[in-house]
Specification:
2 domains; five-stranded parallel sheet; globular; six-stranded antiparallel sheet; 29% strand; 360 residues; TIM Barrel; alpha/beta; Immunoglobulin-like
Length: 360
């Protein structure tokens, strides 16, 4: 083909064997080239799928979905998904949707810091609600066929300090590391239906990493991904009891919530049952938290413990001070008769890795 010849001329004669193909991007939106209706989009996509799978039937097809912000079946996003799933459900592998919190239509130039802190910490609950709504749509329309969700753009996006409506110059704080961690926890807990979840945009734009001519540094939201590399492949059921807080609605995609736990948690285990990885999020902004971890039908020893921390909730990294938010060793763990206890610093994320053996 013409493009194959072009690839070869550029030094790569063999195909790249790309297996995941997204067709379109947010085409329900007026700002997109090719914006259209769900019905017209579905008809176009059928032609794409037919041509693409004629070349490689093993590829995975990702199509444009949308994020219902309410339980109303006539929510515009729900109607879009219903149409696309109904017309393409037999031919696709992933339904894509995006979320940036808060929605920029609701941006304020100033926020009450206390109100914003708790709203950001609780915002992953809104993501969980959207995941559940789409799960129900998929199960109701295409079951028993399995279609997965692809949350292939997500991030926290607040107005930059220079007040310009931009994805550039966004400053991420320790608070935002908690948001990122709880969002990853949410995806893990919905892993039955979430096939991929991709933070956008990675470098300099809503960044995990910021660069300049002379250096590069990790932003606060980089560090949860470092800890999550230590998670195991199997999810464990957990029970948590702790104090709670309430939040106010600050955006169409950041609603008011009641009885939000101050402790967020996730536990995963290896296939052989010997390695347990636990993530703990202390959402108290100024109070430390003592957490008791009780292991059922097992005993263990701590083999690694790390935490993301900084001096305050508003601490951030920059080129002059690249280590204000950082990962350090967590040493406040004690063995107890029925498990372990650990002291969590205020506004912190902790990872504990245990080596397990069955209780005698």
């Amino acid at each position: 083909s013409e493009q194959g010849n072009r690839r070869a001329a550029n030094g790569h004669p063999e195909p790249y064997h790309v297996k995941y193909w997204g067709i379109g991007n947010e085409v329900w939106g007026a700002w997109q080239i090719g914006t259209t209706t769900a019905k017209d989009y579905s008809q176009r996509v059928k032609h794409f799928i037919s041509a693409m799978k004629a070349v490689d039937p093993s590829i995975n097809i990702v199509v444009v979905g949308n994020s219902p912000l309410t339980d109303d079946p006539e929510d515009a996003a729900a109607v879009w998904n219903r149409t696309v799933l109904g017309k393409l459900g037999k031919d696709i592998d992933y339904l894509s949707w995006h979320i940036y919190q808060p929605d920029k239509a609701d941006w304020r130039e100033t926020y009450d810091p206390h109100e914003l802190y708790f709203a950001v910490c609780a915002a992953p609950l809104d993501i969980a609600q959207i995941l559940t709504r789409i799960e129900k749509q998929i199960e109701g329309i295409v079951a028993p066929r399995k279609i997965l969700q692809a949350v292939d753009e997500w991030n926290l996006w607040l107005l930059p300090l220079d007040k310009k409506t931009s994805m550039h110059n966004v400053t991420y704080t320790l608070r935002d590391a908690l948001y990122t961690t709880s969002t990853l926890i949410t995806f893990f807990k919905h892993s039955r239906t979430v096939g991929m979840a991709n933070l956008a945009q990675l470098v300099n734009v809503l960044p995990l990493i910021k660069t300049s001519e002379n250096n590069a540094f990790a932003t606060a939201i980089f560090f949860p991904f470092v800890l999550f590399r230590q998670m195991q492949p199997y999810l464990l059921h957990t029970q948590c009891s702790c104090e709670t807080f309430n939040t106010n609605r600050i955006s169409i995609n950041m609603n008011a919530h009641e009885k939000v736990p101050y402790l967020d948690e996730l536990a995963t285990i290896s296939e052989d049952g010997r390695c347990l990885s636990v993530v703990l999020v202390n959402r108290f902004p100024i109070n430390q938290m003592k957490v008791h971890i009780r292991l059922e039908k097992a005993t263990g020893v701590v083999k690694n413990a790390l935490r993301i921390t900084a001096a305050s909730t508003s601490s951030f990294n920059d080129s002059t001070h690249p280590n204000r938010v950082h990962i350090s060793d967590l040493t406040s763990i004690k063995k107890e008769s029925d498990g372990f206890s650990v002291i969590l610093r205020p506004c912190s994320v902790s990872l504990l890795e245990f080596e397990l053996k069955k209780a005698e």
